[in-house]
Amino acid sequence: MFIYVEKILPKNxxxxxxxxxxxxxxxxxxxxxxxxxxxxxCITGAGHLLRESFEVMKKLKKHGIKITTLVSRAGEEVxxxxxxxxxxxxxxxxxxxxxxxxxxEHPYSAPITGRLSLGxxxxxxxxxxxxxxxxxxxNGIADTLVTNAIAQAGKGFVKCIIxxxxxxxxxxxxxxxxxxxxxxxxxxxxxxxxxxxxxIVVNFDETSSKSFxxxxxxxxxxxxxxxxxxxxxxVIAGKEIKMRVRKIDAENTRKLKDLEDTIVLKHPYEIxxxxxxKP
Length: 279
Description:
Elements: E1 3-5, E2 13-18, E3 21-26, E4 38-43, H1 50-62, E5 66-71, H2 73-81, H3 85-91, E6 100-102, H4 114-117, E7 123-129, H5 131-138, H6 145-155, E8 159-164, E9 170-175, E10 179-180, H7 190-194, E11 200-205, E12 210-215, H8 225-229, E13 235-236, E14 240-245, H9 247-256, E15 262-264, H10 270-275
Helix pairs in contact: 5-6, 5-9
């Protein structure tokens, strides 16, 4: 009969003690023998693949994985625009190893990343990851919360999984947050009255000499009340647009693959296969 001893050696090394015997068990997963997998999840300022990333976070949390979330300044704005802030607070509810860290509240030294340099997490996951963040990472720049975390993960032998929004050259389809169709809008201003954040304003186009409604995305929290009240179906949620991935951004993504202990994925759904695969 063996007795499991809590992990006291370096990352992912456990001890099994039997009568007159000492066994060291090296595990690929902390979920063995009642342990809990812990990950750091980084969110940067991209709307592309954001909802899909949240779907994965929710699924991992349901499987008992603890998620500490780091959110860049731009990432916080985008999460609000897409109406995902409430979900974020549920995923990382500020319990131990489930903290929610916003860059705007954090000092530049980012003490929370010290856990990464000490190897306290199983994975660092960054998705969605902007081209700006990728460019900094591949050039060794660590001057933000997220880039510092990635750098410290590398130093602490923590595996990194990065999903860049600019994975390869070509055209990608992405979805926008809320917007207003000017052709359908009648300027009734019902949406203005219902918006508690004053995110909808009336502007004037001098070229056409016409007024139009506009959503100020920096103020929008994605609540959807404007869409609910609009009788003319003029408020659009998730409009699809085409975007080009630049050559330079795709080249930087390829450079990511040369970093130590770094896995580069095309889509966040692929994370599930890695973290939830059976040992």
